[in-house]
Each structure stands twice: as structure tokens, then as C-alpha cells.
Amino acid sequence: MSSTTLSQIELRQRDRQRANRDRITRRINQQIVPRVILIGMCAVFILPFYWMLALGLKSNAELMLYPPTLYPHSPQWGNFDESTQVFPFWSFARNTLVITVVTIIGAVISNPIIAYGFSRIQWPGRDKVFLIVLATVFMPFPVIIVALFDIFSRLGWINTFLPLVVPMFFGQAFWIFLMRQFMLQISTDMSDAARVDGANEFQIFFQIILPQTIPALGVIAIFAGLHAWNDFLGPLLYLLDPDKYTLAIGLTFFQSTATYDVLFNLLMAASTLVVLPVIVLFLLFQKSFIEGISIGSIK
Amino acid sequence: MSTQADSESDRVSTSVAQPIVTQARRFYLPTRRERHQLLLAAIFVGPWIIGLLAFTLYPIYYTVRLSFMRYGGFNEPVWIGLANYRRLINDDLFHTSLWNTFYYTGLAVPIGVVVAMTLALAMNQPLPEIPIYRAILFLPSVLPLFAISFIFWALLDPNQGIVNEALRSIGLSPPNWFGDVRFAKLGIVAIAQFGAGQIALVFLAGLKGIPQHLHDAAMIDGAGVISRFKNITLPLMTPVILYDIILGISLGLQVFIQAFIITKGGPANSTTFLVYYLYDNAFRFGGNMGYASAMGVVLFVITFIIAILVFQTSSRWVHYDLT
Hints:
- The structure holds two protein chains of two kinds.
- By secondary structure, chain A is mainly α.
- Chain A is 72% helix and 0% strand.
- In chain A, α1 (2-56) packs across α15 (264-284) and α4 packs across α11.
- The longest helix of chain A has 55 residues, at 2-56.
- The N and C termini of chain A lie far apart (61 Å).
- In chain B, α4 crosses α9 (196-208) and α4 runs antiparallel to α11.
- Chain B is globular.
- The chains are: A mainly alpha, B mainly alpha.
């Protein structure tokens, strides 16, 4: 009798010990290990930004010191203003902004229309054709840069913004995909009812579907804006005159100055000015950014 | 009685006849309704078709045609048959550029998958401060690559960079990253990891889609963390990983901006990637546009073949039907 109770107590103790051990391992697995990884990686990911700012604020004299100082000892806030004079910063910023705005307009107009055709209208072969849309995502753009340059120069479009913005009015595969996913989730009840009432497809598109896609339109506007603001190869190919250049090309001016030594402080100050609008936009619309990326993760 | 029989025979006849009729219709003429729907679809999808023809398919055809020509950009193109391709076969710098491109892609893509998967697994844990990590890790991947390249150039500079200063302070003799044949490509691989946050988010969305009951069941059976990752998480994530690998390879083979900005293809051509060499030939060396087009064709074919090969091996390691 007493031996069984003893062993029961032992068993219970062992159970409790095991439960404790399990709790500790789960704590390590779920809280400590991921925190160490994430904090470590965040430090690595912040370091380049820190260095951009630190270098951007150093004086020319401090820049020459070796070993480098780890933080700017006398921060030169005037570097930002000075960096905008190495190249016509504000004129290039205006060009970039024009291209960005027109790109957004093109994307917001074209992608919903195309996506509607791939999601809200039934037609034979639709989903097979959509596979072609998806396949074009994997098409390496540099394959055709020579041909595009020649085609656009025959059209007289070189040294204008047209090669950069006109294609945006014809839909981009990923944004069509995003919009289509969104439109497929909208119930067909309202459009069916409207059809019974004699509404045509265009009325249904404009009055019923489009108003419901505003969140997705926001995502597309953000991605289109990013695409234009971040584009390097396009402006490099098609824009020849400095009065047409964008900020992306402007930053390369720091390398073409006659002296061998690059003015890292001014380059980093200008880089800060170029990435700052993106960072602000990101912090304001983080949810939309993440939504846009996560929709792309369907199987 | 008779009406019932009629309707009966009707039903029989339609149920027999209908499949044949629809089949016939599918192969011959679309119905009036289908014609109407196709017309509507053409109006909505039309812009995409025009764009595909004008900005992708026609340029591909144009590239292939130019690849058989000698063309400087101003004079009339001259048909020279396979001469550009023969030149590619004997061009050592082209071979170097291919090797550099494969080397970069072969390192950047697998490392990228591991880094992104690690981040995604860590972010999938129930920690209250996850949104902060997510913001920090995701932000670099939405910033312009040209700016990131300039920043890394400063970061890894042998004299003014903080990375080498840190390595020196712990007693290591740091490499001259972008000035050293052995390290220049590795530096560019490191830049690619800076964009891992975006893929990590895609992975994270995939991880959130794995039903918890699978993990619970495995835990009851005594499966540990590693065993659950190997037998549940990883198999269920393979479709997303496949997508990322193929997109990563396509992007990796296009690597250009980093070399254009930081290394100018050097040192000793160690970062002359395929697209860099293509660009140089078309737009810098006085316009070898035909020759550059031949390189474009090669890039297209290589991307296509590798994508097909990855897809074919995928049936062995990608699981679509576990949920």
C-alpha cells in the first residue's frame, strides 16, 4: 500500500519535472533563440543605415582620419545642403517625381482593367492565358535592353520619359496578379444582381468592383511608385541629357568627379536624401507593403 | 402519362447528347455567349496583350534578329549569320562573365533561402515585439538597389568602412573587399542578403498557413523541433521555396547594378557579369549591338533551361498536396 503511494508520488514528481523541463525548452525554443537571431540580424541590417548617416555627417577632415571614427565627432548638417550641389539635385528630383507619378497613374488605371478580364469575366482559355502572365514575371528584362533601345530610338523616344512610363499603361504581370487575387475574393452576388438589372460589364467594373478594390489599388500605387523611384537601369539606358536625369543617375556623379578620392560624406548625405522618402513612405504604409508581399506567397 | 414519358425521353436524349454537343462546340465554334464573353475579355485584357506584344514579344524577336547582325546603332544592320555566336564561343571575357554570373547566382540564391527561412522561422514565434523586427528586416528590401550599392561601397571600404574597422579591432586582417579578386563577388553576394526580408515575409505567410494541428499531433507523438521542421514545415514550404528559387535564379542571372556602381566589372574582371558585359558591348565599346544581342539570347536560353531543369527536379522534392 505504502509502496504504491510512494511510487505514485515519485511518478507525479517525475511528471512535474518533465513538465518543467518541457516548459524551459519551449521557452528557449520560442523566445530566447528567435530573439537572439532576430536582434542579431536587425543589428546587421541597421548597420549600413547607421554608417550611411555617420559618414554623411562627417567633415572632410574627419573623413580623412585613419582608422575611421565610429561616429561623427562634429556632425556637419550642412553636408546635406552641400551634397545637393554636386549635381542638380532638385531638378533630378523633379524628373524622378514626374516619372514616379505618371508610373503610378498608369499602373492604377491599367492593372485593375486587365485583372478584371482575368477574374470577373468567364471566357474559354482564361486560366491558361493567365499562366502566360505569370510566366512573364520570370522573363529577364536585360535580354531585351538592346532591342528596346533600338526600337525606342527609331520611335524618337530616347531622351524622353516615354520608354519609362508608356509600358506602365499596359499592365505589369505581378500587379495584374495581385489585383486578380483581390478581385477573385469579391463575391459575385452584387455583379450578378446588377447584370440581371441590365447593367453592362463596364458599369459593373466601374460602379461595383472598382470601389471595392481601393485597398489593392493602394498597394499597387505604392509598388508602382517604388518601381519608378528605385529604377536604375531604365533611366541609365534611355536618358542621355542631364536635364532629363533622375536621382539614381545623379548619385553616380559623385564617381565621375575628377579627383580619385570619392567624397563619401557627400555621397552618403545625398543617398540619405534619396532613400528618405522611401523610408517615410514605408513607415506610413507598412501594412500595405506587407499585404502586397504576402499576397505573392500563394502556392 | 405521355407528358411524363416525353420529359423522360427528353432527359435521356439530352443527357446523352449534351456532352457530344459541348465537345463539338469546344472544338468548332464558340457559342454566342462565349463569343460575347471573349469579346468582353478582349476589351479588358487587350491592353495587356498589346503590351506583351509591343514591349516583350516583339523585342525578343528583334533581339534574336539583331543577334545575327553586325550593328553599331547608327548604320544599317548587316546580316552576318552565326558570326556573333562563333565569336561568343572564342571570347574569353564572355566565358569569364558566364562563370562570374553562375558563381554569384550559385551562392546568392541558396544563402538567400537559408537566411530568409531562418528569419521567417524566428518571426513565426509568439513574441510581442515582432512588428519591430519585421519593419527593420523588411525595410532594406524596398530601398533602391543603386542606393544600397553605394552604401555597401562605403560600408566595406578598406579605409573608411566600419566593417573592416570592426574586423581589425578583433585582430583580423580584413580583406580589401571590392578591390580583391577573391572577395569582390562575395561582397555582392552579401548585398543580396540585405534584401532577404522580402522573401522572409513570403516564407512567413507560408508558415502561417501551416495548420497548427499538424504540429500538435507531431508533438504528442514526441517529435522535437528539428524533426517537426524536417517532416512538417519544410515539406509544406517547398512550393514557396521553389517559387523563390526560380525567381532568385532569374534575378541572380541579371545581376548588374552592383557591379556597375561599385566595381566597374573589376578587379581583373572578377565582377564582369553577363549583363554587365552585355551592357558594355552595346552601350560603351562603340556599339556592338548585334554581339550584345547574342548575349541577350544566351541569357534568355540559360534562364529558360535552368528554370525547366529546376521544375523537373521539383517533382522529387516539392509537395503540393500535404494539407
